[in-house]
């Protein structure tokens, strides 16, 4: 690997891990490079909720001294600040958790540490990864624009070359949308494959731990660490791949720039020999967005009850809304939403079995101006279907900002889908 | 209320809360009575994992001094030791969590405190409420016998008159089975109605926070505190109730004493004018026990991965089994189990709509000798169906030990089912 020729910020987690493993790079040097990049960019981008550079360097030196713990040895990983860390506060971007110190790492963090990861700091998030306060993070490509929500800091830090990997979460579109806006690779794995213990609860049926990387191989590396699937799936040839272009029932929110990127992607893959077809989902799927909201708000009612009862004064109006059930969702509404979701999960696995991957927009368009989270409409139904979603950040819009497309497939097809994503990345990335 | 005539240990949470509210009882006196009873019985029964009497009394005096916080003001509640408490260790009965101090209360505990509850201590549990180490708790009715698992200490402490209320959890049969063995009232509410944050994760699809009380009204009081349903449902007349007797697909594990109690219950309700019918569930339900195991073990694989990777030496063989997937469950098995469960949930809600309640055994028979958890076969399918389950501890077996029957109904029928349970309790309890 010709590391000298490229700055650290351009290298993937896989490349950095290999360099450390080969003895070409030591964890402290890498940590310093990340900290330098962060120091340079943080005043503009505000991706970090907590960072202690001295402690990061101390841990990097510790890792440098010991034999490799695993495939992430010495690789810096940022953690979204709704995920518990034993040695750093977990504030959830909420005045209710100022400098909150959980007693232990969330299992997902502990698993990364066991693989040798250098947990570098906590990244900005929408309050409780749910609603309430927006993150203050700016878009790495244009600081007047948002990095999205809720995993704002993690997406921006990875896309900006501050860290090679970061954990996020997704309940609606909290991973994929920021990935599209910032131009980061991301995986929201199949629901239930990574422990959600020690991660702020919003919706049991939807909350999913996810991650960002600098390449599809980076996403696969972390999937392997979490024990998802047995082996990496080698990228198949693009020629012959069966790719479905799915406009999704929420296509009406897409902007011309995204529609153009979507068309370009289909054309490019077709020209490379992939079999391209258009996929219209059955009518029932058009009711999934409404079902998502019923489940989100109803489960959120239970999730925030304790804060409503005990800390009402500091609880954001958005969460009071959930607990008071101001939308008036009934138990019958909730049961209907659960059952529709279950039926669509079964139907979708059958539909998706006919393709190697389904391609669909990750966001309506380029990142909007401001710090709002952006519209999650294009992500929610996939979260509700529990299916794996890979963001490929290979396109650009009219303003030159990133546009991402989501690659999805049946439940538990994560590693196979990552193989297909690698093939598409290799075929299309050089053109972008 | 004629409190003087009955010992504290015989009073329900509702009666105690009313006495405190009326100024007839102060929280410290009640706390002392509980502590005295615990001190007397603990050497024999071993229900407590953590108890600090001086701290309990200090908090009781604090509660005595302030205006009522809510419906549980001054009422002692025990907490199963897999649920986080800010002021007490949470050991999970695991060598991996010796004297572990979480940084905050689990939301379910915080909600109880906000209602005025006096959190009195932590109760013994099966390791992680899952497998591994058994609790050391003995049965209050016969110390040579088990109190069941995993919520052993909570069930025994309530049944033994040590505390009026206790939190448990259920993933298989961890609430209902100990309730049956010990003779406690219990509610496993509909999945998702109470926040599971801060409760040790085993299975996302199954884990449910639950509780024990000394009467059905006690269960309803706690359901109200957790915001389940809008109002208490008044007990309907028993005459005219439509009761289904369901042997369950796991009937073959029942013992003669349970079969006799089941028959007696049906006869007694019939004699009181209830419409009794036998309910045979469709064939698909006979596959739910196997589906439960696939989901439990597969989700457990993700739940214990961090401990497997980081603390292998102290991790019980049972959890290594889950993480290594020694049963070889495939993703296809897991998807099939999820989908079967979803289909049976829909079907069961339809079936249950024809009845006011469905009655089914809570355990195979009386508590067995030893400290084993007992067989959860009769509880698992209801947990998997996500439906509310009330244990009525109104029967006795040949050895004079308690036998419980489960009252169940459709998802979210919790409060209505508690109304029916109150009617049955009032009609049958005096005869027992």
Structure description:
Two copies of one chain form a homodimer. Chain A has about 425 residues and is α/β, with parallel strands linked by helices. Chain A has two domains: about 220 residues, Amidase signature (AS) domain (Amidase signature (AS) enzymes, Alpha-Beta Complex), CATH 3.90.1300.10; about 140 residues, Amidase signature (AS) domain (Amidase signature (AS) enzymes, Alpha-Beta Complex). Helix content of chain A is about 40%, strand content about 15%. The first copy, chain A, is built from 14 helices and 13 strands. Chain A has an eleven-stranded mixed sheet, with helices on both faces. A two-stranded antiparallel ribbon of chain A has the order 4-5. Chain A is globular, with a radius of gyration of 20 Å. The model of chain A has no long low-confidence stretch (mean pLDDT about 95). At the A-B interface, helix 4, helix 9, helix 10 and helix 12 of A face helix 4, helix 9, helix 10 and helix 12 of B.
Shape of chain A: globular
Structural class of chain A: alpha/beta
**Uncertain segments of chain A:** none
**Gap between N and C termini of chain A:** 23 Å
* Domain tally of chain A: 2
Round the mean pLDDT of chain A to the nearest integer and report it. Answer: 96
Figure out the total of helices of chain A.
Answer: 14
Proportion of residues in helical segments of chain A: 25-40%
Side by side, the strands of the main sheet of chain A go: 1-3-2-6-8-7-12-13-11-9-10
Question: Class of the largest domain in chain A, according to the CATH hierarchy?
Answer: Alpha Beta
Supply the CATH superfamily name of the largest domain in chain A: Amidase signature (AS) domain
- How many individual β-strands of chain A? 13
Give the chain pair forming the largest contact, with residue counts.
Answer: A-B, 47 and 48 residues
């Amino acid at each position: 690997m010709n590391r000298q020729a490229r700055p650290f910020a351009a290298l993937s987690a896989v490349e950095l891990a290999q360099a450390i493993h080969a003895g070409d790079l030591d964890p402290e040097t890498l940590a310093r490079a990340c900290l330098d990049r962060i120091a340079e960019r943080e005043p503009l981008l505000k991706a970090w909720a907590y960072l202690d550079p001295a402690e990061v360097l101390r841990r990097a030196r510790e890792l440098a001294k010991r034999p490799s713990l695993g495939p992430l040895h010495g690789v810096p990983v940022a953690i979204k600040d709704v995920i518990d860390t034993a040695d750093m506060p977990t504030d959830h971007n909420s005045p209710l958790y100022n400098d909150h110190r959980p007693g232990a790492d969330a299992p997902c963090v502990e698993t990364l540490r066991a693989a040798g990861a250098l947990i570098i700091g906590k990244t900005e998030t929408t309050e409780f990864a749910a609603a309430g306060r927006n993150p203050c993070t700016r878009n790495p490509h244009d600081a007047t624009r948002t990095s999205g929500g809720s995993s704002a800091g993690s997406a921006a830090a990875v896309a900006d070359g501050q860290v090679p990997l970061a954990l996020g979460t997704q309940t609606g579109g909290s991973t994929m949308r920021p990935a599209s806006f910032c131009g980061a690779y991301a995986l929201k794995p199949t629901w239930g494959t990574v422990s959600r213990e020690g991660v702020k609860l919003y919706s049991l049926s939807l909350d999913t731990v996810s991650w960002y990387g600098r390449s599809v191989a980076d996403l696969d590396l972390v999937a392997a660490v979490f024990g998802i699937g047995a082996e990496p799936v080698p990228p198949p040839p693009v020629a012959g791949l069966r790719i479905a272009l799915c406009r999704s029932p929420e296509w009406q929110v897409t902007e011309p720039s995204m529609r153009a990127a979507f068309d370009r992607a289909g054309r490019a893959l077709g020209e490379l020999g992939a079999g391209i077809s258009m996929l219209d989902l059955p009518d029932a799927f058009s009711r999934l967005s409404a079902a998502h909201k019923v489940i989100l708000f109803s489960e959120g009612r239970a999730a925030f009850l304790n804060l409503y009862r005990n800390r009402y004064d500091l609880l954001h109006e958005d969460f009071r809304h959930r607990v008071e059930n101001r939308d008036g969702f009934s138990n019958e509404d909730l049961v209907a939403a659960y059952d529709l979701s279950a039926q669509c999960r079964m139907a979708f696995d059958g539909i998706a079995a006919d393709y190697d991957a389904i391609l669909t927009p990750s966001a309506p368009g380029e990142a909007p101006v401001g710090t709002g989270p952006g519209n999650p409409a294009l992500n929610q139904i996939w979260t509700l279907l529990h299916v794996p979603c890979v963001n490929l950040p290979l396109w650009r819009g009219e303003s030159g900002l990133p546009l991402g497309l989501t690659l999805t497939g049946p439940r538990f097809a994560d590693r196979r889908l990552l193989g297909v994503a690698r093939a598409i990345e290799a075929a299309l990335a050089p053109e972008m």
